[in-house]
Amino acid sequence: MKRHRKKTRRGSPISKLPEELLLEIFAHLPNYAARRRRGRDCPPHWLSVTRVCTLWRRVALACPDLWRFIPLESEPWTQAALKHSKDALITIRAAKWPKPSTLEDPYAKQLALEHISRAREITLVDFNNNISYGVTVNCNSDESSPKPSPHLEVLRLRVDIRSCTGLRLSGVFDEIPTPKLRDLRLHNLFIRWTSPLLQSTALTHLELQVQEIPALRTWDCVEDLAQTLSRMPLLHTLVLLNVFPPNTAVPPGLLPERLDFPHLATIRFAGSSIMEHILACIAAPACVEFALVLNTDYVESPLPLPLPQHRMPDALTTFFSRTGDKLYSVKLYGYGLWGGRTQMFNTLARISSPLRRLYLDRVDGVTEDEETWADLELPTPLLLAARATPMIWDDPEL
Amino acid sequence: MPTIVSVDDSTVPGEGSSRLLLLVSSDNKHIVVEEDIMSRSRFISKQVEGFEATSQRHAILLPFSSFVLNKVIEYCSHYRGYYLLEDDPDAAPPGRSPVREWDQEFLDVDRNMLLRIIKAAHYLEIKSLVGSCARAIADMIRGKTTEEMREILGVENDFTPEEEHSPSSKCTG
């Protein structure tokens, strides 16, 4: 048989490649998305290559990194990947969005999540409370201490908004120490500002957003958020959408005067007027891209809340004055609620930084018509754009 | 180790920044190329360092045909002066290099040629070209069944019937 195999390999050009090149080729095979398109009966590529010939099988099985993407279609495949990945750091992704998926086996998913301690990435998108959330958050709830996740770098959880109106993150994911976490995205999940997940100083991407604006939910204090943010010097992207209920009080002196984010490139804030207070604290580089939707909760909330004593002009002026003399892009949404065009122009007049681009959305009195801008004296060149249609937050990542 | 033959200065002219190299293919074709173009190859760079240490110039004999060698030189010429992450991760600026479209066209060759290029790139230690070739080969078998993979890449099934049909092979190989 060995002689037969040697003879066979001599006739196969690809089998004459050094094994490291074969591995390089395997490493470029796609993992999840492409595999899904092939349907349930097609095994993952890693399994397919082990069935091609003895050389491919030996090479593939000897490389744990090739098995790090854990398939969730069936329990045997999951077991195979967990076995052959050995001690390699694994990636668990279960994303039912944008395509509906019926291929995931809940037992396989549970099996995969039991190996959370060696996960580098966990992404669960549009999961519902009965399967993924229950498995993930509560599977270790009876244990005395949560499993540590020393290698977890990426955690993205998005609750299916159709199955609930938002859940409070609790259990394992709210207790595990994650010192290497650099990318945290929670959609429709509420988190304590003092959660261990937010204690990682390695965080570069923090994205917390709730689709429905919270009304009377009990929340942590805003000063806890400020303290938490102050421990994230590497932040590149900061997205906080609707994380505070309306009418949240900010007693004087509770927020720091300045929060420095030297690497910040994107800010997206939306929600109640408390975000203005946080914005006013932030010092960011000049090239930051800035998007702001403020105070829509006061309009859409059925509660008879009084209009707040807004300080948006002050917040914007303070923020922009810290960006130095180059500001590349500013996007303002919903500014009209603060007085519309006149108020906004007055605010812009107080901003000394030269603006390169200004994008306005839903600002009262501002249309796409250039005449809108005729009496606005701003440094040139300045690209102005405006639209009246409501902004829908896109989410290409999740 | 490559075979090295001594050459005189008249064979490999050039001094200073525009020095030339003489590469000799397995079919004994002599190809003169600027040293700067081939600097993407760690193998060639090491050879050149060796020349400088001994103050002697050599032709570099390479174990692949002039046809393959010319393809590699074409690749290196195209990316002359570019930082490619795979070749120089420390020097490359942030962001992805816009290489993929050109690479796809460049590597639109038959299977055996593709395999020869990847072997040459591996020998010459040009990581970016190895990666592009590997990606091209992986694309050929992407989404294919095991039998289709064998057919596309010309791999013989050398499993015994017992190995092929064992229960464990269905899940774990």
In short, what is this structure?
The complex is a heterodimer of chains A (398) and B (173). By secondary structure, chain A is of the alpha/beta class. Chain A has helices at residues 2-10, 19-27, 32-37, 45-49, 54-61, 75-84, 106-113, 129-138, 222-229, 274-281, 296-300, 312-321, 340-350, and strands at 90-95, 119-127, 154-159, 167-168, 183-187, 189-190, 205-209, 237-241, 259-260, 266-271, 282-283, 289-294, 329-333, 357-361, 383-387.
Describe what you observe in this structure.
The complex is a heterodimer of chains A (398) and B (173). Chain A is α/β, with parallel strands linked by helices and 398 residues long. Chain A has three domains: 1-62, no CATH class; 68-203; 242-251 and 261-392. Helices cover 27% and strands 18% of the residues of chain A. Chain A has helices spanning 2-10, 19-27, 32-37, 45-49, 54-61, 75-84, 106-113, 129-138, 222-229, 274-281, 296-300, 312-321, 340-350; strands at residues 90-95, 119-127, 154-159, 167-168, 183-187, 189-190, 205-209, 237-241, 259-260, 266-271, 282-283, 289-294, 329-333, 357-361, 383-387. In chain A, the strands form three sheets. Chain A has an eleven-stranded parallel sheet with strand order 1-2-3-5-7-8-10-12-13-14-15, covered by helices on one side. The longest helix of chain A has 11 residues, at 340-350. Chain B contains eight helices and four strands, in the order βββαβααααααα. In chain B, strands 1-4-2-3 form a four-stranded mixed sheet, with helices on one face. Chain B has one domain (4-153): 2-Layer Sandwich (Potassium Channel Kv1.1, Chain A), CATH 3.30.710.10. In chain B, α2 crosses α4 (111-124) and α4 packs antiparallel against α5. Chain A binds chain B through residues 1, 4-5, 8-9, 11-18, 20-21, 24-30, 34, 37-38, 42, 45, 47-57, 60-61, 76-77, 79-80, 83-84, and chain B through 111-112, 115, 118-119, 122, 130-131, 134-135, 137-139, 141-146, 149-150, 153-160, 163-164, 169-173.
